[in-house]
């Protein structure tokens, strides 16, 4: 058995003119976060987690707050990092720092993003009635939906990567900082591009990796070098491939890579590439053409790297269009190592109840998934580890008989156990 730890690494292929050297800085780990149970305090440097109601909190530089449920109200972000997965957010004074959206955040009341960098990450969704960008908006594989007007002001800037999408009714660019995108592309969809509510006082971009989707034939001026698709009903129609996910599934031997697409435009095939240093990649697959399966118009692909041993590996997908154009997915890092005895899963074989016990110093949100050997997920459960010892119970009496892989994630740590039902 093996321990799997994986996280996302960003490939820097373009240095935007927006004032930061890469689209997305590395994601801080929430592993070992200290559970916050009271507000009315200014945090010290460190990592904290919120799963209950907290108010009157000040997050200074050096502090990371991971929000997975609960609520945060009447608080101040003063140079720190707020990682949002779920919960209620309101009355946040965003003075400086980063807000990283990893779940779905919709119209946080009395909260503005005037002076902070907002990063909408892979799988994250930011829904807003209107959005003023006075600092930095990074859309790295995530989606931003704006009901009315998106406006880039003053020193504001936008950087997109990994097929990130912005959908807005109207768009205004009053900033001299141009919108950028890395070679993994990003898309801006404008529902009403006509003059009036939509105008660009400055050129939008010098990068053809910025894709602009317009509903008709009218094209606003000052789009710069953007790749424009007219008669376009949404970003999915402008991008060669739209990924729903790209992830690793641990196996007893090797690593199975899984990805799902929601759109394929003039797409020919994928090639899976692997690296030992995240810089030099080599192909490990042939042309992956046929999906493993199709469900509701989404195509699912799989590839198993049987050569993965106890090493650190980096994977990416090379996507090739019909005209030979190449685009790359985000990079997935996988660390394989010996399993520890810190996690026990019993009884094995199991009949009705499966217990999971931890004896580790790390605290934070625990995610447990039970999947069969084909990768089909049967159960999922979340918990909050606040001390060294922790236990959870899963009801498995309804599972068919057979072998299952139990994946337990705590921060960036993955523990894998095989059980028999």
TrEMBL record:
Keyword Chloroplast: no
Residues spanning the signal sequence: 1-21
Stretches of the chain forming a coiled coil according to its record: none
InterPro entries on file: Ig-like_fold, Secre_tail
Domain Secretion system C-terminal sorting: 345-419
A Pfam family this chain is assigned to: Por_Secre_tail
Keyword vocabulary terms for this entry: Signal
Protein name as it appears in the record: T9SS C-terminal target domain-containing protein
Source taxonomy: Bacteria, Pseudomonadati, Bacteroidota, Cytophagia, Cytophagales
């Amino acid at each position: 058995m093996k321990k799997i730890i994986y996280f996302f690494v960003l490939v820097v292929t373009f240095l935007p003119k927006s004032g930061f050297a890469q689209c997305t800085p590395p994601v801080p780990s929430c592993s070992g976060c200290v559970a916050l149970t009271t507000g009315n305090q200014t945090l010290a440097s460190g990592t904290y987690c919120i799963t209950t109601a907290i108010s009157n909190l000040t997050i200074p530089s050096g502090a990371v707050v991971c929000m997975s449920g609960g609520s945060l109200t009447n608080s101040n972000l003063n140079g720190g990092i707020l990682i949002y997965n779920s919960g209620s957010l309101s009355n946040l004074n965003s003075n400086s720092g980063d807000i990283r959206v990893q779940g779905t955040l919709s119209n946080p009341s009395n909260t503005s993003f005037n002076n902070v960098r907002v990063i909408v990450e892979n799988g994250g969704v930011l829904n807003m009635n209107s959005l003023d960008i006075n600092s930095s908006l990074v859309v790295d594989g995530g989606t931003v939906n704006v009901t009315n007007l998106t406006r880039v002001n003053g020193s504001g800037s936008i950087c997109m990567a990994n097929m990130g999408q912005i959908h807005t009714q109207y768009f205004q660019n009053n900033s001299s900082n141009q919108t950028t995108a890395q070679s993994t592309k990003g898309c801006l969809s404008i529902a009403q591009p006509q003059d009036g509510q939509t105008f660009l006082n400055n050129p939008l971009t010098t990068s053809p990796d910025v894709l602009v989707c317009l509903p008709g034939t009218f094209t606003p001026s000052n789009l710069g070098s953007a790749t424009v698709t007219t008669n376009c009903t949404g970003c999915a129609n402008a991008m060669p491939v739209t990924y729903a996910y790209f992830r690793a599934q641990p196996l007893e031997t090797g690593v199975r890579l899984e990805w799902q697409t929601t759109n394929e435009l003039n797409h020919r095939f994928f090639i899976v590439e692997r690296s030992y240093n995240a810089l030099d990649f080599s192909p490990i697959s042939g042309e992956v053409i046929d999906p493993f399966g199709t469900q509701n118009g989404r195509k699912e692909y799989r590839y198993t790297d049987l050569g993965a041993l106890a090493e650190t590996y980096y994977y990416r997908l090379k996507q090739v269009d019909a005209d030979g154009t190449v685009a790359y997915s985000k990079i997935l890092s996988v660390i394989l190592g010996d399993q520890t005895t810190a996690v026990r899963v019993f009884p094995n074989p199991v009949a009705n109840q499966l217990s999971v016990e931890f004896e580790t110093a790390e605290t934070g949100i625990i995610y447990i998934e039970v999947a069969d050997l084909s990768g089909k997920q049967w159960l999922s459960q979340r918990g909050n580890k606040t001390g060294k010892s922790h236990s959870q119970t899963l009801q498995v009496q309804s599972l068919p008989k057979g072998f299952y892989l139990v994946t337990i994630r705590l921060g960036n740590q993955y523990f894998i156990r095989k059980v028999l039902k």
